[in-house]
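Title: Prediction job returns without error message
Component: structure pipeline
Severity: low
Priority: P3
Assignee: unassigned

Description:
Job completed but the reporter wants confirmation the result is attached to the right record. Sequence as submitted:
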Amino acid sequence: MSVDIQPALVRDRFFLRSRQTVRAARAFAAETLHAWGVTCRQDDVSLCVSELATNALLHGVPPGRHYRLRMLLFDGTVRVEVADSGGGWPRVADRDPGADGGRGLLLVAAVADRWGTAERRPGKAVWCEFALGPGA
């Protein structure tokens, strides 16, 4: 039996604790997808990168620190991971429908095919995955 194993493609970048870096994180994600030849789900990936980066900035990155955006391509799947060194654990919160914020993980859960969290020392990573489908 012959098994064709394709290694994962990985790119990551660190971003300072600043709201202005969310745009740079989206640009990095778009650049990465382009470099990999991924032409579908770009808007979904961009939205989730924005939400996860914003959540890391608001709830996870201690002052003077940074967060890491890592993207992986493997088995027809794009995985986005945003890691920070802060405390706390992300969760989908019940929010007042009239509130201005608090829907980031709800959006990620609705748009991505899968999402979750992973413990890091220190901190945590929040990830989401996008199946690309045949020919993507």
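Comment from assignee: result matches the submitted record. Helices lie at 21-36, 42-59, 104-111.
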